[in-house]
Design brief:
about 70 residues, mainly alpha, two-stranded antiparallel sheet, about 10% strand, globular
Length: about 70
């Protein structure tokens, strides 16, 4: 998928666990894992906003576009 999710990077910068982030955002750790591992097909703007609020970041700090050609697709 050409959209990469960098939640791990933000978690490391904030020294926060997946469980803590899920709890503070209000989603299950399983759903956060699906998003974090790039398996999600969609993300609600309310969830994205909550992630940004808790992680004190911008959407672009969490999501980035990767060129499919450069990734060897």
């Amino acid at each position: 998928m050409p959209i990469a999710v960098d939640i791990d990077v933000m978690l490391a910068k904030r020294k926060m666990s997946v469980g803590e982030l899920a709890d503070r955002v209000g989603i299950t750790p399983a759903n956060l894992a699906v998003l974090k591992n790039g398996r999600a097909k969609a993300v609600r703007f309310t969830t994205l906003a909550a992630l940004c609020e808790v992680l004190e970041c911008q959407p672009g700090d969490i999501l980035r576009w990767e060129d499919g050609d450069a990734a060897g697709d």
